[in-house]
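$ ./design --mode recover --in tokens.txt
reading tokens...
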């Protein structure tokens, strides 16, 4: 099953919807981490005689209580369980989830896991985009990332040869926002082996810059990025 996300730039990005089983396993991994962390904290505090001091208890258990929230905020929508299961929280409009969205998901999670998680499971199974209550409130969902062994070519864009010759001087007309969107489309292709955003973005760039090229879409967009890097770093 796939989820189609329409970005604010009218580019459709398709994700593989995370199945209930994968999400449950990710939750169980995170739960195991929290249980082990709580046991380790409790044992340590007993050994040093701090277990009776309430304010110290609150201080030490603070990271455990907010684990899901700060992990997803700081790790681009992934807890440890989600990383292991190759899952990620994404927003349905194609933008990055907001801190407010992550907070909504976190606040509603206790309701979702009530009755042995049946509320979340039913909601995920019945909603079109596989959303639990927290996702519905935050306009987010969880997607399955496809493993890839491809080299992250975006990291190589900045490392061009000294004698590199740009091919499309028209790239000077691109805004930073448009360049970032091109990078997002290429990342989507690398993460999800989904070429549709790259195909669409390639055509949009050609139309905007009035360029004709026989390059394959992926090669064309990487060339555009390299040319943009050239003009923004070497002709200043």
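writing sequence...
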């Amino acid at each position: 099953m796939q989820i189609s996300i329409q970005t604010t730039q009218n580019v459709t990005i398709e994700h593989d919807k995370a199945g209930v089983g994968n999400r449950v396993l990710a939750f169980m991994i995170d739960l195991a981490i929290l249980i082990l962390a709580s046991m380790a904290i409790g044992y340590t505090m007993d050994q040093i005689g701090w277990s009776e001091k309430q304010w110290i208890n609150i201080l030490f258990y603070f990271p455990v209580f907010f684990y899901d929230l700060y992990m997803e905020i700081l790790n681009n929508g992934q807890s440890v369980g989600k990383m292991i299961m190759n899952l990620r929280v994404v927003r349905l409009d194609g933008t990055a989830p907001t801190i407010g969205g992550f907070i909504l998901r976190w606040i509603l999670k206790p309701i979702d896991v009530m009755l042995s998680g049946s509320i979340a499971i039913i909601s995920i199974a019945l909603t079109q985009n596989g959303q639990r209550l927290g996702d519905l409130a935050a306009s987010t969902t969880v997607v399955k990332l496809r493993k890839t062994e491809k080299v992250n070519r975006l990291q190589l864009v900045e490392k061009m040869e000294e004698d590199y010759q740009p091919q499309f001087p028209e790239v000077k007309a691109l805004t930073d926002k448009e360049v970032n969107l091109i990078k997002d489309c290429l990342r989507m292709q690398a993460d999800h082996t989904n070429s549709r955003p790259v195909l669409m973005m390639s055509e949009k760039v050609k139309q905007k810059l009035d360029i004709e090229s026989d390059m394959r879409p992926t090669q064309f967009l990487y060339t555009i990025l390299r040319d943009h890097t050239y003009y923004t770093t070497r002709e200043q």
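exit 0
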